[in-house]
Model the fold of this input.
Amino acid sequence: MRRRWSLGPVLGTLAIVVGAFVMLVPFAWMLSTSLKPGSALLVLPPRFIPDEPTLEPYRAVVTTFPMLRVFFNSALVALATTAGQLVVASLSGYAFARFRFRGREALFYGYLATLMVPFAVTITPLFIIVRTFGWTNGYAGLIVPTMFTAFGTFLMRQFFQTIPRELEEAATLDGAGTLATFVRVIVPITGPAFATLGIFAFMASWNNFLWPLLIVSDRQFMTLPLALATLQGIYPGQTQWNLVMAGTVISVVPMIVVFLLAQRWVIEGMTTSGLKG
Done:
């Protein structure tokens, strides 16, 4: 029994290390390939560390596309979508958590059931609506439809239900209305939930490929996923994988930075909102 209990933490740590290694290998290979010249891509056996590392693939990616414009488009869409989801999800989640009205539970579970509907089912009517409004080939079509999320409403509702009602009652006794109570009392202590939802919304918007592909045909509004997909067919006969990997590295770095900056609040938000297990 003593040996079993002593080996448990060791085996658990070993499993975590092996899992982390397996997950990091593709990222390391991506970085290695992005530093290889074109002549080293088809070398057999493949070499993990390039003999002559070069930054030429990064220069080629930047000169092939208006990378600053593409990066700006992705950043603008991701930040605007994240901000919109935080506002909409926090207000709707607070309403479901605190307001009492007939049919509240049925409405909430019906709204939550939309998570089970595949995006492929709703994409056609959504495209028709966006085209009717004239939002194709524009930032409005990229941002507005993705600002509404049932998952975000659920996440914020779960967090708001953990906040003691005494805080709101004290604010009401001081003469604060519902909106003032929400803005001045609830929002300042909702940082972990905001960080969690913000990370999910930012990553989903940053990696979104299908929706921008449908409504954007002008390179002026192209996002990073579209640019990376275009790199696979820009050279006839063979895909230059070092250029593709260089563009992928450029697109991955902002997500890593955002997650590292907000990971403490993300973990706290996951544990306090009921999503930890």
Observations:
- The chain has a mean pLDDT of 83.
- The chain has one domain: 65-272.
- The chain is about 70% helix and 0% strand.
